[in-house]
Amino acid sequence: MPEAFFYQLNGDSPEAVLPRMLDMALQKGWRIEVRGDGPDRMERLDHVLWGPGDEFRPHGLAGGPHDADQPILLTVGSGTGPRDCLFALDGAPVSEAEARAAQRVCIVFDGADPEVLNTARSQWKALTGAGLAARFYVREDGTWALRQERPARA
Q1: What is the CATH number of the domain that holds 19?
Q2: Is this prediction's pTM over 0.90?
């Protein structure tokens, strides 16, 4: 059953928290899409994921010849096909159909940005309204605190 996890950042950037989150998703054997709202964010994330030494995460920017082979695919705007896990950053769109096709959707957003916060609230209502299980976490003092949980509905 698909799940939606919401992660509210409070001062941390997505580039600071995503590498560890992506490592956990890769350990599950998931194929991952990371969707942002613009190419600048994805290029910064691409640079971070190259990391020094053994901190490299296998990934690529969408639009290359090997998109289908990438364990982590960085996209802008809309997806390129089903993935096991979809990370949506900065208010990037996620449809109900995409959420149902994935094992997990992770909405990562800046709680201090009113527009992005409102988008995340709308996504919570849409995905929980569609019956998906959902969890809402807030980043506090370098750790994630679970604030709300909704079970799946038929």
Answers
A1: 3.40.50.10110
A2: yes
